[in-house]
Amino acid sequence: MKLFVSEGNPHCLKVLAALELTAVKCDVQYVNHEDKVVQFLSHPALPAVLLPNGQQLFSANAICRYLFEVSGQNCNDHCNQWLEWEVTVLQPALLRALRTAVLQGKGSDVSQILQSPLNFLDQSLLKGSKPYLTGEAVSVADVVLWATLHPILSDSSFTIGEHPSVKAWFDQVAAVHSCQSAVQKVLQGKGLQAMKSYMQRQPAPPNSQCRDAQPCNNNPAESEERQHSVSEEECEEAALTWSKGLSSCPATDKQHPILPQEGKRNVLVTSALPYVNNVPHLGNIIGCVLSADVFSRYGRLRGWNMLFVCGTDEYGTATENKAREEGLTPQQICDKYHAVHSSIYSWFQIDFDFFGRTTTEKQTEIAQNIFWRLHEHGYLVEDTVEQLRCENCQRFLADRFVEGTCPHCSYPEARGDQCDKCGRLINAVELRDPQCKVCRQTPVIRSSKHLFLDLPKLESQLEQWLEKSTSTGDWTTNAKQITHSWIRDGLKPRCITRDLHWGTPVPHPDFKEKVFYVWFDAPIGYLSITANYTNEWEKWWKNPQQVELYNFMAKDNVPFHSVVFPCSLLGAQDNYTLVNHLVATEYLNYEDTKFSKSRGIGVFGDMAKDTGIPSDVWRFYLLYVRPEGQDSAFSWADMAMKNNSELLNNLGNFINRAGMFVTKFFEGCVPVMELQREDKELLAVVGWELQQYIQLMDKVKIRDALKHILNISRHGNQYIQVNQPWKKIKGEESERLRAGTVTGVAVNIACLLSVMLSPYMPLVSQTIRDQLNAPQSCIYTMLQGGGTFVCSLSAGHRIGTVSPLFQKLEAEQIEALKKRFGGQQAPLQSTSSTPAAAPVAAIKVAAVEGGHSEKAEQLAKALAEQGDKVRALKAQKAEKDVIAAEVSKLLELKTQLAVAEGKNPEPTSKKGKKK
Ligand SMILES: Nc1ncnc2c1ncn2[C@@H]1O[C@H](COP(=O)(O)OP(=O)(O)OP(=O)(O)O)[C@@H](O)[C@H]1O
Ligand SMILES: N[C@@H](CCS)C(=O)O
């Protein structure tokens, strides 16, 4: 193993300290800052490590973590959180502080820049009341954070305020011999001055790195910083790139069927298949389809050969139950809700190459084939299992239709498959006080013979594959952690059959009455959906040599995609394409509670369009708060604020002004541009933001990449503000020329923004290009390689008609929407506990808010539907309790309608009351 470091590089400090502390055997080689150790990167990255297997790591934190892991000290969740915080919050702030201190000699600004992260660290240490960040001993988190803070905290010339807990912790870590030795090696006793040459070579820090705690703004100090920090060479390089203009554009139209191509990057994208039994909410949308859509759109712009497939997950008890509730057959439910999902995704502009479904012949064919192969290779075992059966409903209860007290954490509303509170998987028979979710009766335990996938027998194959996939691919941290914890806890055989009717039939003669468990079946849906798209589906799914597979999902789906499904495919031994990049979001909450289809909490896909807010704005906000790294929340007030500040005042304002200047001052034609130093600097800064965007998008950091788009328009606004073309146009010749240059540069930045926005806001992006009459090839050119910001609208280019892109969201409008869609979730949780409650609950919210005619109309409609449902159930002679539950909802709706119409509600008859 060989470690490459450079003197004066602050990132090398942590790595050298970690190396010495862990005593891992490794050669250390000192190189120059510009030496390109990792050949395939466009920029030199140091430190870097060459691993014994020939692979390279080039993120300082990844190297530290690796060293600790090799020495047997694994990074736990707490430790990972600190590393994540260091990368996203502390390090950017520190680099900014170092720039101001080392390059501009403005030590007095350091305190202000670091105040917020230091306060946070101080509070956390105080609360943790442990000597080190994660416990009693120095961990990788301590080394990494200490090293980052070292240049500033060890220099007594900075006054950074009182942070007693930070100070005590820092001094302890600094006293560790390995840390002292690393300082000596990297800084050579020269303190901050040792870093000067390294800092001078770094690009200007992005404004995105000011987090919420340090809001980004157009403050002149930052502009001044930018002027100081872009080197002469960078300016000239940016100007040269710019002058190259557009390259010719290859044909970009999709030709179906899309198949892998020799010599291309062939990327297969899937998003978790949404359950068909209900209407998806915003959490479902950002968790899978929207994230996958943005990445697929981006990949296409990069010229990769992409196929994006998805579809509805249609089998299982959830569908059977929904059918029962609505008085339809399961197939009718699937047809109805498949159409609902399709129309919602189409409104959200999800650009699937194919949106299929799992209830198809191909599904049966492929699932049964995988089953037989597993059987032949000895990976299936038989066992008798105890299951819960509801004698009242006369059926075995699928896990999701049992509720009870969690055997691990005693949460009283745990589901039969998983506890929403502690997240542990549960075997339904282990639940304390179980209840059937439909009729609320206590189920009994019954035995039945089932087939199991022998995960323990596949474990070593799985681990080998996982090691390769997780080290070469882009797995999100949560995906790696969840998978790791499954393996650590030991794999157990997993039941793949169920006593149900609505599912893919198990072809084995001894199990004729059974169907496959939905989680065995569902991921096979990716294959069968592709097979319904093209007969040549195996070119994607049995071609790991040529294809890279990205799976998008929310965190709860991870183990099925990283352990269970890969085991099915490995055991089937048919050269299947396994996931290379597993991208899992955390959860999006609704205001301060959890979205839930079954409890009717939150905004649902079909309601979003009724708000009058354009689909692109919804996409923008959901992506802005995408739960990357941690749970996040949808909030109406925040959505309005982001719309008004980021879209309207920042992005829209800049693009509109740039276009209007061309229209008003230059008769619609892009003026001549004579670049001065200031313009070239801006080109360099914008180019840098573009490169960051590309690096992040390549790593599927969709939310973080979006911030760089907004940074560019902020730079643009500031540039216009400083140069005032509207005044200069009235001046003498040289001033008019200057107005022209500024306008020309600005309108070209607007064009670049339209390209970068395209995956996020496809309609707005196209509108901007239409307004600018931009050539199609601009998209292709600017996302080439590491990103090239070129002049795409040259002097003389005639633009189209410019008009505003965004509208203000007014406070009253948002207040009304907030009320309409769920200001009163809390009581709903307790009143609507059956899986059928969603539409009723949503309407109930509307009714509680007071009766205007729209609500009354909604209620009347729901009442009519509910009446139909009850009649259908009675005609089918459904179970008494099921009918009673539906009658109870009917009566409740009647009451709500009366309230909404301003009438006195009739007293509810006792007979119809919910149990
Ligand atoms: N809040 C959320 N944020 C992100 N993804 C989510 C969220 N809720 C659900 N998902 C994803 O969508 C998938 C489908 O969700 P599911 O149908 O279980 O919705 P739910 O709201 O959790 O339903 P229920 O409340 O009925 O259990 C989940 O498996 C998960 O991957
Ligand atoms: N229907 C599942 C995903 C299957 S891939 C879910 O929505 O959680």
UniProtKB/TrEMBL annotation:
GO MF, one example: ATP binding
Keyword Protein biosynthesis among record annotations: yes
Reaction(s) the record says it catalyses: tRNA(Met) + L-methionine + ATP = L-methionyl-tRNA(Met) + AMP + diphosphate
Enzyme Commission code(s) on record: 6.1.1.10
UniProt keyword terms in alphabetical order: Aminoacyl-tRNA synthetase, ATP-binding, Cytoplasm, Ligase, Nucleotide-binding, Protein biosynthesis, RNA-binding
PANTHER family attached to this UniProt entry: METHIONINE--TRNA LIGASE, METHIONINE--TRNA LIGASE, CYTOPLASMIC
HAMAP family found in the cross-reference section: Met_tRNA_synth_type1
Protein name as annotated: Methionine--tRNA ligase, cytoplasmic
Species lineage: Eukaryota, Metazoa, Chordata, Craniata, Vertebrata
